[in-house]
Each structure stands twice: as structure tokens, then as C-alpha cells.
Amino acid sequence: MPASGSTPLKTEYEFTLPDGYTDSKGVVHRNGTMRRATALDEIAPLRDPRVKNNQAYLTIVLLTRVISKLGDLVEVNTNVVENMFTSDVAYLQDFYRRINNNESARQTVTCPECSHTFEVEGDDLGET
Questions:
Q1: Would you list the domain boundaries of the chain?
Q2: How confident is the model over 9-18, as pLDDT tens digits?
Q3: Nearest Cα to 30, choosing from 15, 20, 38?
């Protein structure tokens, strides 16, 4: 339980994929939730035989462990991540880095009306 007056630790973040995963029924899933990774999330995939045979597979296994929801899918497994567009996988890799490295504390934003640029505290990643 957080100390009185402190903000609870944010551990889950919502995302929207640029293209979206299309399931076997043709339904496109774009909105999801990713949780922050634990040490085990980063260590366990190294024992996976698919990762031992091909280091590039580490991304697939790691994302499968931390994506807690994607659209209406019952489960996000390696088959789902394997069949995503590379643009979506790249987006998820960047998103993973942002939520696990606290890079979202300060952001530069530009007003769409007056084009004034300024920095803000916090993030726009959404939470659940």
C-alpha cells in the first residue's frame, strides 16, 4: 500500500497499434494493454529453445509475456506476435522501452493551433 499522499505505482499502459493484428476471422485488433516487465520477464525467454536457436526471437517471447490484452483476443501468444506487421512489432518494442525506462516523465509537445512548443510533466500513455 502506498504511503499517505504518494501516487500508486503505474504498472499497466494502454496502447493503439499503428496497423493492428488481424485474426483468423478477419477481425483487426489495435487497442491493448502492456504491463511493465519484471526481471523474470527478461530472464525467462533466454531459456526458451526458440531464442537459443535465434536471438531475434527474444522480442517475440518477451512481448508475449508483457502484453496483457489485445482487442478481444482471449490470449496473446507467440503466434499472435509472429503474425503482426513489422511496424506494429517495432511500435511495441519502442513502447516497451518507454514504459520500462521511465522515459515518459518529460515530453515536448506542440500546440496544434499556435505551434508553440513546450515541455510537460507526465505521460500520455494512458493507464488501466
A1: 12-121
A2: 889 999 999 9
A3: 20
* CA distances (Å), origin 1, targets 8, 9, 26: 8, 10, 43
Q: Which residues pair with 35 in a beta bridge?
A: 12
How many Cβ atoms from other residues are within 10 Å of residue 63's Cβ?
A: 24
Neighbours of 70 (CB within 10 A): 23
Three-class SS of residue 2?
coil
CB 31 within 8 A of CB 16: yes
pTM: 0.74
Query: What is the grid cell recorded at 96?
Result: 516497451
CA distance linking residue 6 with residue 26, whole number of Å: 45
